[in-house]
């Protein structure tokens, strides 16, 4: 089975078996191999440099190929390298054993048919263990077949381990104790996962860490009959009652040791032999396959649960957005929202006020994903209540800020633009809390910032007690107010050039007084700018304006 192995970062050594004919690499949680910036110190932007679906591995007629992009016509943001040569897009290259793949600062190696080579005494390796079974007694071979069949029928790790030890006692009547030890990571502690005796009586839980670590670190099976002599530097050997033991690794599909299975005895006249170690290696092979299947099964279930949770979260978030545009005499409205991930941190709302005014809000929570979406859910409710109960928009935003600070959500602040429209007086009161300044598009063609720095307050949730101020803007017929999130201004092209406020001004210059036409023209310009690139941030646009006297 071909396998992809991670070579860089804190999770180096991670292996992904390539199942099926289509295998996606990227930072999206739905990818087969999920990777991001390899360095723990990498910034959020550096980690986002890996595209959501960055590269694709496919199989055709038994040959494996790699191509840049998502396989659906979209290339990655920063390219894919095979043996340090950048892949052309579109196109694909055949993969060969030990080929190295680089995605940003993430390095992986393609192993076409990874084999385990666990050596034992007399140089019996994992690849030779099948031949050594030919010399085993018929009873042991029959039990080995029974183990293989029994382990195929369960996908629970504890059940696999218990069944393995049960059958091993039948194969090795001299064994007085059997145990399985796992480790969570290469430098992690050794954890006793299963412990049994042939009779089911309580067993001494102590084991030699020296023997286990040698088995894991050297990825080799160990036969010990004179333990103090074979491990003179181990203080724990003398404390263990065992006189003879056999110990062999359990491994993951890519060949990395994940734990060991050990049998031991205190009886001098019933010591283990090389043949015993060889048959234990065969049993460990079957158990390892079953453990790998169980792990893949549980990972698949976890991914399915996560996908369902994200789908529900997406539905909930969409339900929080307005279902329709406001119907205000003499005014037109446009709104657009697209999250960069399954759920996002942008939101917009239209809040009708009791005196006939209409509050238009656009907010952006720091960060993306589920955490940001949860903050949006709370924030949207609090914002609506504040604007409905506090007449002055600046005072309402100040109240909202106090509520969010009281909630004490760590490292989550919100930039917010609030425009309260009085359609009878054709006046807008604008309050800005750390958000990119909305643009006022005059019917004359002039474009001006409605909330320059001098009237922009801090984002919501950073500091309390600093009052917000509002600015009054009068609307003439054909005037429009354009509010957008930084996902618009910071959208990048293939050369990492941002669209910028200048790009927005250029895109909407010369547009008519209809908000729908203005919004759609801006979005078309952003899409052209980012052609072939992944969306790095949520994109939200709201535009409204005076289209007639109504």
Give a description of the structure.
With 550 residues, the protein is α+β, with helices and mostly antiparallel strands. Helices cover 29% and strands 26% of the residues. It has a 6-stranded antiparallel β-sheet with strand order 2-1-11-10-7-8, with no helix packed on it. Strands 18, 19, 20, 21, 24 and 25 form a 6-stranded mixed β-sheet that branches. A hairpin with a 5-residue loop joins strand 18 and strand 19. Helix 3 runs antiparallel to helix 4 and helix 3 runs parallel beside helix 7. The radius of gyration is 32 Å and the shape is elongated. About 6% of the residues have low confidence.
Provide a short characterization of the protein structure.
By secondary structure, this protein is α+β, with helices and mostly antiparallel strands.
Fold topology:
Blueprint: E1 3-6, E2 15-17, E3 22-26, E4 33-34, H1 44-47, E5 55-60, E6 63-68, E7 81-82, E8 85-86, E9 93-94, E10 99-103, E11 106-111, H2 129-132, H3 138-152, H4 157-171, E12 177-183, E13 190-196, H5 209-217, E14 222-224, H6 227-230, E15 244-251, E16 257-265, H7 274-320, E17 331-338, E18 346-352, E19 358-365, H8 369-389, H9 393-407, E20 414-422, E21 427-433, E22 439-441, E23 447-449, E24 456-457, E25 470-474, E26 480-484, H10 486-489, H11 500-508, H12 515-529, E27 539-546
Parallel strand pairs: 3-4, 21-24
Antiparallel strand pairs: 1-2, 1-11, 3-5, 5-6, 6-9, 7-8, 7-10, 10-11, 12-13, 12-16, 14-15, 15-16, 17-27, 18-19, 19-20, 20-21, 21-25, 22-23, 22-26, 26-27
List keywords for this structure.
alpha+beta, six-stranded antiparallel sheet, 27 strands
